[in-house]
Amino acid sequence: MISRVLQKPARILYALIFLPVVGILVFATLRPIQVLPRITLAPGFSLLDQNSARLTNEDLRGHIVLYNFTYSDCAAPCPQTSEVMRALKNRLGEIDAGAIPVSLVTISFDPDRDSPERLRAYANYAGADGKTWRVATGDATRLKYALGGGFNLYYAPNADGTFTFDSLFVLVDGWGIIRAYYKTASPSVDRLARDIGLIAQEARNSTGAAKYAYEAAHLFLCYPP
Amino acid sequence: MKIKPWIIFAMLAGFVLIGATAFLGGRLLTPYEFHGAILQSPQPAHNFSLMSHVGQRVALNDFRGKIVLVYFGYTICPYVCPTTLADLSKARKSLGKDADQIQVIMVTVDPERDTLPVLADYMTHFHPSFLGLTGTPDEIAQAATPFGVFYEKENSDSALGYLVNHTANVMVIDRQGYLRIVFPFGTTAEDIAADLKYLIQK
Q: Are B51 and B74 within one domain?
């Protein structure tokens, strides 16, 4: 008699402890929500683009931005990263970013030679339209702070006028937070498109109850493979 | 049927236990929701070394062990900077005995006009512990850039002379030197205090 009376509340008690644990395990293993980690702040900068228009990181607040880094004289065997940018630009229409604008920015680390005219020539060749995709550069010292210090990009000039640099793409969200590094000259365009979609999806779900689910996804490291 | 008093007592005790477990369990299992943007910085924040308003050079790394709130602003700033600093002062005060674990730093983006005495006057007005920092334009740019801070002079017709447009986020660096939270301009003192309390307890 005593054990029967005590059994029932005990079962409920077990269930109350057990269910959230199972819930967390299911959440962490099945990853119903995927997020990209919030890595760190993207740097501040003020640049001039191919149309001599100013481009600052504050202008890009609220945009999802994919950055790549090169210089206009970059000819084979210098890695051609503009092809990935062009392919992605052509696919932006398919990405469901809601009302969030997506921008592509190519930054040249060769400001001594890359005048706006040369940037324009490069932009025309690469397919950068000056709106969705801008090509820009700025003061050499400040660039070093922004690219080297901020984006963790290695680049160094060689005696023959070429540059040695690491191929790098960086994805930044509307808060100005770095969400992904792609340390290759040819990241998969599918993956870039997926990651832009993930950021947009998270931004859309940043209020109310959905926010808890997304913050939980960050807590349980529900990162895409 | 007569129900024995001890059964009623056992049931009541059971309900209380279940209620308490559900409440505590819920509290423990719900992740804390930050008001600012929480970051997972893989490496410590970029160090900088600048001149403080007390006439001593200080580095960001000197404050390891404290939670550092870094802000980039200037004293002639008409609205955004005083509002932010007043909110930080209020947030600090509401931490009570833990307030000493917080260090507020403002790096000027207007080194021309923000001399050390001007900074000293301005910062201590918000709280005696608040520290104003300055340096050469290059040192300031080097400090500001990795925190995503952009600033530029803007000519204005006002009696204040020129203004300086600047990124108005407050960056929170934890005791180990990692950038952990970014508060955009307009985060209330209460929300800032809640996030700081969480960091202090951790």
A: yes
